[in-house]
Amino acid sequence: MTLSTEDILALPKVVLHDHLDGGLRPATLIELAGEIGHELPSTDPEELAEIFATNANSGDLVRYLEAFAHTTAVMQTAANLTRVAREAVLDLAADGVIYAELRYAPEQHVSGGLSLQEVVEAVQAGIEEGVSAALEAGYAIRAAAILDAMRHLDRSAEIAQLALDNRGTCCVGFDIAGPELGFPAANHREAFQLLREHHMPVTIHAGEADGAASVGEALGLGSARRIGHGVRIHEDIDGFGGEELVLGVIAQHALDMQIPLECCPTSNVQTAAASSIADHPMHELRNLGFAVTVNTDNRLVSGVTMSSEFAALAEVGWTTEDFFEATLAAAWGAFLPYDEKADLAELVIEGYGIDL
């Protein structure tokens, strides 16, 4: 059965990988940039969004990353951080998302004089405002934050402690993001040791710009409960795409432990982690039983929504049942207490009308 736009919008969605600084509304970015005198490529919302999308689809990573210099420039005050977070929650809710984990790097938002603690409190205020405003608009959504440390910088131990200090109030987990190739997880050994000792949920960007060994390091040294992207884990599977497969230690571990892979279809193509949506490794990984989930990564920068990602997958053969399985995997992979994950999973089951 072909899924219509309305069908896809109505499906309950769970997003585990959505960058706050990659998902601003174009009009908001233009307004806030004007207030501080920051020059943008365009001051027309539609044209600005098109410029970012064109850059993302150019195959040039430098052009893809240009957008973040603009978005982070306007995210240096408490008021602006709160607004961006509030609008992100509202936009996700209107797109059928019932649970979202928004991630951001506090260290990228202190050039205006905010402390790291003030940054996380400002974002949390926006998340809470967004949830309340969405409910008033008729949408039920729950949202939380994940704190990123940057792979190529040296503040990960500090951000890990920040995450622990704000556990249960302003964040639910920790991540390392930024350039993967050349900046291994091992550089952040101290942070991961601290997080392990305190049983803090960790997800790590891996298997996007680097190969399966990077995923292995994330799962081993980093004790990651989820993998951001993770699509290149297929490089640890001999005969991938064929009938006779031999899983390596890394792939077998991820499969056995049902480690959620936070796949972001469009972004993965844009960053060359996948050659196309049709040939994305996530399809075969799903067929093999891996816990594949669907995510946006950067809604503004990549020009996507959860619904548009679902639509792109539907065009290459994904069915309602496939979306249900991926969404249920995301629900069980959420950084929530077990009983709350069970409640979220029940909402997914009810929303899809699945009789288990």
Describe the structure.
The protein has helices at residues 5-10, 26-36, 45-56, 61-73, 78-94, 116-136, 156-165, 189-197, 212-219, 249-256, 265-270, 281-287, 299-302, 306-315, 320-333, 338-352, and strands at 13-19, 97-104, 142-150, 173-177, 203-206, 226-229, 237-238, 246-247, 261-263, 292-294. The longest helix has 21 residues, at 116-136. Helix 3 packs antiparallel against helix 4 and helix 15 runs antiparallel to helix 16 (338-352). It has a single domain (5-352), classed as TIM Barrel (Alpha-Beta Barrel). It is globular and about 60 Å long. Helix 6 links the parallel strand 2 (97-104) and strand 3 (142-150). The chain is an alpha/beta fold and 356 residues long. 51% of the residues are buried. The mean pLDDT is 96. The strands form three sheets. The protein has a four-stranded parallel beta sheet with strand order 1-2-3-4, sandwiched between helices. The chain has a four-stranded parallel beta sheet with strand order 5-6-9-10.
